[in-house]
Write a structure and sequence with these properties.
Number of strands: 14
Domain ABC transporter: 3-228
Structural class: alpha/beta
Strand order of the largest sheet: 6-7-8-3-9-10
Order of helices and strands: EEEHEEHEHHHEHEHEEHEHEEHEH
Keywords: ATP-binding, Nucleotide-binding, Transport
Largest sheet: 6 strands, mixed
Pfam family, one: ABC_tran
Protein name: Gliding motility-associated ABC transporter ATP-binding subunit GldA
Bound molecules: adenosine-5'-diphosphate
Shape: globular
Family: Belongs to the ABC transporter superfamily.
Radius of gyration: 22 Å
CATH class of the largest domain: Alpha Beta
Strand content: 25-35%
CATH topology of the largest domain: Rossmann fold
Helix content: 25-40%
CATH superfamily of the largest domain: P-loop containing nucleotide triphosphate hydrolases
């Protein structure tokens, strides 16, 4: 096991932030650590990375106890904190050389990591001149410099624009091919896009720990579709496998189907038959969606 979290309970004064949390992560897994704000995600990440030392329970990283064998455990961790503490006045390379020195890593590694995280075009700049997406890349580069087996990322995509978001997601996926990755988010779609498994935390407790495939097993699909013209509900109700039709507004509909078959093509055929154009269409799985709603409501 790369990470073993055993019966962790954490109090801040008399407020319980984590209540008897346990799970383990195998080598090579990408785990999405999901939960609404205040669920306890950051607290648990700080415990796993050794930044919080007072708690009940036990954490092993790569077999090393994070309290009694902290240095060995921390050597196998790359950590990107939520408020990535970059030194804004430093140049990108200067900052990474500084980190290389801390980790006693050869300076040659810096140019390799710059290439790996796609920082090359911005590598000559000062950190405060970079966009939020590139700042995140600098943080990731610093976390990856010592080639850790375990990567812990606290809300790595918060505040990124849609393009940056896709780039950072792809980067995490790429890095995750040969590392164990635990990353936190409060966005369900994020988990769908990147993870093998999801651990859901709510009010300091684990409420679900499942493989993404299992969560997707539900055969109920939710499709949101906008047409270019208004259409009567009774026409839509004729589409096969449909069990619920909701008019979200004007020309936008939410359709729920009871089938595992991808209904996209059928809806396109339906639109063509009725002389309509599809302006927008997206499909979600009801199980994931309802889990997310349950957690955030
Ligand atoms: P998340 O990362 O899921 O948003 P946190 O771990 O930051 O959740 O917070 C969990 C709970 O612990 C929240 O109620 C938060 O207010 C509280 N908390 C977090 N850090 C501290 C702290 N340093 N002192 C006191 N309470 C804290």
């Amino acid at each position: 096991m790369s990470i073993e979290v055993k019966n962790i309970t954490k109090f801040y004064k008399d407020q319980k932030a984590l209540n008897n949390v346990s799970f383990s992560i195998k080598r090579g897994e990408i785990i999405g650590f999901l939960g609404p704000n205040g669920a306890g995600k950051s607290t648990l990440m700080k415990i796993i990375t050794g930044y919080i030392n007072s708690f009940e329970g036990e954490v092993l990283v790569n077999g090393f106890n994070i309290v009694s064998d902290k240095i060995k455990a921390q050597k196998s961790i790359g950590y990107l904190p939520e408020h990535n503490p970059l030194y804004l006045d430093m140049f990108v390379k200067e900052y990474l050389f500084f980190n290389a020195e801390i980790h006693q890593v050869s300076k040659n590694e810096v140019s390799k990591i710059i290439e790996k995280v796609g920082l090359f075009p911005e590598a000559h700049k000062k950190i405060n001149q970079l966009s939020k997406g590139y700042k995140q890349r600098v943080g990731l580069a610093a976390a990856l410099l010592h080639n850790p087996e375990v990567l812990i990322l606290d809300e790595p995509t918060t505040g990124l624009d849609p393009n940056q978001l896709i780039e950072i997601r792809n980067l995490i996926k790429e890095v995750g091919k040969n590392k164990t990755v635990l990353f936190s988010t409060h966005i369900m779609q994020e988990v769908e896009a990147i993870c093998d498994r999801v651990v859901l935390l709510n009010k300091g407790e684990i409420v679900a720990d499942k493989k993404l495939n299992e969560l997707k097993e539900s055969s109920h699909q939710i499709v949101e579709v906008s047409f270019d013209f208004k259409i009567e509900k009774q026409f839509i109700e004729k589409i096969p496998f449909i069990i619920e039709v909701n008019n979200l507004h004007d020309t936008t509909w939410q359709l729920i189907f009871d089938t595992k078959k991808d209904m996209g093509a059928t809806i396109f055929d339906f639109a063509q038959e009725h002389g309509l154009k599809i302006v927008q269409l997206n499909t979600r799985n009801r199980n994931l969606e309802s889990l997310f709603r349950e957690l955030t409501s």
